[in-house]
Design goal:
The complex is a heterodimer of chains A (about 350) and B (about 300). Chain A is mainly alpha-helical and about 350 residues long. Chain A is built from 17 helices and two strands. Chain A has a domain at about 30-265. In chain B, about 50% of the residues are buried. Classes of the chains: A mainly alpha (about 350), B mainly alpha (about 300).
Chain lengths: ~350, ~300
C-alpha cells in the first residue's frame, strides 16, 4: 500500500510540474493547452453522468453555455450598462481598467459556477426522472432550445453575438493573456480532478454505479436515487459552468449556437472524449480528451474543410467499434493491473460451465 | 411583442390551415421514424438529414429543368438505396445494441450528411419553384400556396399506399412479424437482416418524399435537419409506435403549435419553441407516469 501511494505521489507531482511548466515549454501553444484543460474538465464531468450514473446526457452543454454568458454578462454588467455594450460595439466605448477586469471575471466565474448548479438542481427533478434514451433526447432538446432562445434575446447580443471584455490594455506583457487563461483553466482542471478523485473513493460513487446498473433495485435497497442523481448533475453543472466562463473569456466572442450552446461541437466532443478514453474510469476521460485534442489539432489543419466529415466518421467508428474505450480495452487485456484478482480455479470452473 | 393574431381572426384561420397542412408532412416523416423504431429498435438522429437530402435530390432535378414535383417519385427511389447502403454500412452494427449507441452513431452520420450536403449543394437557402400559384380564400384575406395543398395530398396518398402495402404484401407482413418478435420471425424463416435493410430503406424513401415536398413548400438548407428529427421524435412519443391515425393527428397538432408559436412568440423563437415543447412533453409524461411509479420505456 505504502509503495503504491508513493508511486501515485510521483505521478501526480510530475503531472502538476508538467502542467505548470507547459506554458513556458510550449509557449506557442498556450491557447491549445487551455483548450485541452477545458476539454478534460468537460469529459470528466460528463463521465460522472454518462459513465458512472448511466445517464447519457447531451445537456451538459447547457451549463457550459450558461456559464459563458453569465461570466461575460457579470463582467460587463458590474461596471457598464449591458444593453448598450451588446447593442453595437460597446467594447470600444467602455474600457475595463485592470482592476475592474479581474474583479469582473472573478465575480463572473463565481456566478457562472453557482447559477448553473442551481439550475441543474431546479430542472433535475423533472429531467432526471426520464431514463435511457428519453433522457438523452430530452437533454439534446434542452441544449438546442437554450441556444435558439439565447439567439433571440436582445440584451445578450441575440444573433449578432456578444463580445466579451478585451484583456486590459494596461498590461503590456503580450504573453500575459494566454498565461492568465491557461493557469485559470489549469487550476480548474486540478480542482475538478481532485473532486472527481474524491468522488471515486467515496460511497457516492457506489450509489451512482448502483443507479447505473439497476435503478429499481437501488431504490428497493433504500437509496433515494433522485437525490443522488440531482446532486451528481449539480456537481457536473458547477464545473461545466466554470469551464464555459473561462472559454468565453479566452475566445473573446460569444455566439449563441456556434460558441456557447455549441451542441454540434463541444456537446458531442465531451461525449466522444469520455467514450474514447473509456467511460466509468477516472483516467479514461483524461486520456480520451488528450488523445482527441491531439488528433483534432493535428488533423484539423490537414483536412481543412473536411473536418466535420472526419468528425462524423470518427464518432461512428468509435461508437460502433470501441464502445468500451481505451481503458476498457486495457482492462480486458491486463485485468490484474486494474486490481481485479482472477482466481484461476474460478475461471476454469466458469469455462466448464459454459 | 404584439399579439396581432388575436386581433385578426383571419390570421388564425391562416395559421391553422398552414399548421394542418404542414403537420401532415411532419406526420409522414414521423411515420418513418416510428417504423424503424418499432422494427429495429433504433432512434435515428439522421432522420432529418435524410429528409433534407431527399429535398436536395428534388432540387437538383429542378435545376436540370424537370418540374420539381417529379421529385416525389424520383427522390424516394434514390433515397431507398441510400437508406439500404446506410444500413449495410453502419446501422446493421447498432441494431441489437444499446439505444444510446444508435443515437450517437446516427448523430455521427447526421454530421457527415450535413457537411457533405454543404459541400455539394452550398450553404445557401434554396427553394424549388413549383409555380403552382396560390389559392385565395375568404375575400383574399387568407392565402394558401397550392404547393402546400399538393404536398398534403401527396403525403396522404403515400401514407395510404404504405399502409396497404404493409397489410397486404409479403415484405410488409415480414416487417410486421419482425416488429412483433424478431426471434420468432427468424425461426419461422423470415430473413430479418433483409427485413431490417428494407425497413431502413422504406424509412429513407419516406424521408425522400417528405424532402421533395419540403423543397417546393418550404426551404432547404444543409443544417436544418435536426429540427425535423426532433419533430418526428416528438410525434412518435405522443402517438406511440405503429398507430398511424394518432401519428397523423399529433403531426397536425404539432404543425398548429408551430404556426401559432411563430405568430405569438416571433419567428426567431420558432425552433426554440419546438425543442422546448419536446422537453415539456417528456417531462409531462414523466410526471404522469411517476404517479403510478412507472417511467417511460
Amino acid at each position: 500500500m505504502e509503495k503504491v501511494k508513493q508511486k501515485d505521489l510521483i505521478l501526480y507531482s510530475g503531472l502538476i510540474i508538467l502542467g505548470l511548466a507547459a506554458p513556458y515549454l510550449f509557449s506557442a501553444f498556450k491557447v491549445q493547452l487551455t483548450y485541452l484543460c477545458v476539454l478534460i474538465v468537460l469529459a470528466m464531468t460528463w463521465n460522472l453522468q454518462g459513465g458512472e450514473m448511466g445517464y447519457n446526457t447531451f445537456g451538459n452543454i447547457l451549463f457550459y453555455g450558461l456559464g459563458m454568458y453569465l461570466t461575460a454578462s457579470v463582467q460587463v454588467g458590474m461596471f457598464f450598462p449591458l444593453a448598450e455594450w451588446t447593442e453595437s460595439g460597446g467594447e470600444k466605448t467602455f474600457v475595463h481598467t485592470t482592476a475592474q477586469y479581474f474583479q469582473g471575471i472573478g465575480v463572473g466565474l463565481l456566478v457562472s459556477a453557482i447559477v448553473p448548479a442551481i439550475i441543474a438542481g431546479a430542472i433535475g427533478y423533472a429531467i432526471l426522472g426520464l431514463r435511457g434514451h428519453y433522457f438523452a433526447i430530452c437533454t439534446l432538446g434542452l441544449g438546442i432550445a437554450a441556444g435558439e432562445i439565447a439567439g433571440g434575446i436582445e440584451i445578450i447580443g441575440a444573433g449578432q453575438g456578444f463580445t466579451t471584455p478585451p484583456f486590459p490594455a494596461e498590461i503590456v506583457d503580450t504573453e500575459a493573456r494566454g498565461k492568465f487563461f491557461y493557469f485559470l483553466s489549469f487550476a480548474l482542471l486540478v480542482g475538478t480532478f481532485i473532486f472527481v478523485k474524491y468522488i471515486y473513493g467515496s460511497r457516492f460513487r457506489l450509489i451512482l454505479n448502483a443507479i447505473r446498473d439497476n435503478e429499481d433495485k437501488a431504490e428497493a435497497m433504500g437509496i433515494q436515487t433522485m437525490k443522488y442523481k440531482i446532486v451528481g448533475w449539480m456537481c457536473s453543472a458547477f464545473f461545466c459552468g466554470l469551464a464555459g466562463g473561462i472559454m468565453g473569456g479566452l475566445i473573446g466572442y460569444i455566439d449563441s449556437t456556434d460558441v456557447a450552446f455549441d451542441g454540434r461541437e463541444m456537446g458531442v466532443f465531451m461525449v466522444l472524449m469520455a467514450i474514447l478514453g473509456g467511460k466509468g474510469t477516472l483516467w479514461g476521460p483524461v486520456i480520451g480528451a488528450t488523445l482527441f485534442h491531439f488528433f483534432k489539432e493535428g488533423l484539423w489543419t490537414l483536412i481543412l474543410g473536411w473536418q466535420y466529415v472526419a468528425l462524423g466518421v470518427l464518432i461512428v467508428v468509435i461508437v460502433v467499434y470501441f464502445p468500451e474505450g481505451l481503458m476498457g480495452w486495457l482492462r480486458e487485456k491486463y485485468p490484474e493491473r486494474f486490481g481485479e484478482v482472477i482466481d484461476e480455479k474460478d475461471r476454469k470452473a466458469q469455462v466448464e460451465l459454459k | 411583442m404584439d399579439f396581432l393574431i388575436f386581433k385578426a381572426p383571419m390570421l388564425m384561420v391562416q395559421a391553422s390551415l398552414d399548421g394542418i397542412l404542414l403537420g401532415i408532412l411532419f406526420a409522414l416523416i414521423a411515420y418513418g421514424m416510428a417504423l424503424q423504431w418499432g422494427v429495429m429498435n433504433i432512434i435515428n438522429i439522421a432522420q432529418g438529414d435524410l429528409v433534407i437530402l431527399g429535398g436536395y435530390i428534388a432540387y437538383t432535378i429542378y435545376l436540370w429543368g424537370i418540374h420539381p414535383a417529379w421529385g416525389v417519385i424520383i427522390s424516394p427511389i434514390i433515397m431507398f438505396f441510400v437508406g439500404w447502403a446506410l444500413y449495410k454500412l453502419v446501422i446493421n452494427k447498432v441494431v441489437d445494441r444499446d439505444l444510446f449507441i444508435s443515437i450517437l452513431a446516427t448523430f455521427g452520420i447526421a454530421i457527415v450528411f450535413q457537411q457533405l450536403m454543404n459541400f455539394i449543394f452550398g450553404a445557401d437557402v434554396v427553394v424549388a419553384q413549383s409555380e403552382y400559384g396560390t389559392t385565395m380564400l375568404f375575400d383574399n384575406s387568407v392565402t394558401l400556396p397550392n404547393s402546400k395543398i399538393f404536398s398534403a395530398f401527396i403525403s396522404v396518398l403515400y401514407a395510404i399506399a404504405l399502409v396497404i402495402y404493409m397489410r397486404k404484401s409479403k415484405l410488409g407482413r415480414a416487417i410486421r412479424a419482425t416488429a412483433q418478435n424478431a426471434r420468432a420471425a427468424k425461426i419461422l424463416g423470415v430473413d430479418t437482416e433483409k427485413v431490417y435493410a428494407a425497413t431502413f430503406g422504406i424509412n429513407a424513401a419516406l424521408c425522400g418524399i417528405a424532402g421533395a415536398l419540403i423543397s417546393i413548400t418550404l426551404t432547404l438548407h444543409p443544417y436544418v435537419g435536426l429540427p425535423y428529427t426532433v419533430r418526428s421524435f416528438m410525434i412518435v412519443i405522443v402517438a406511440g409506435l405503429g398507430n398511424l391515425p394518432a401519428v397523423a393527428v399529433s403531426g397536425m397538432g404539432l404543425g398548429l403549435f408551430e404556426e401559432f408559436a411563430d405568430y405569438i412568440l416571433g419567428t426567431e423563437f420558432r425552433i426554440g419553441a419546438v425543442f422546448l415543447l419536446l422537453v415539456l412533453i417528456l417531462v409531462y409524461r414523466r410526471f404522469k407516469l411517476s404517479k403510478k411509479r412507472e417511467y417511460l420505456k
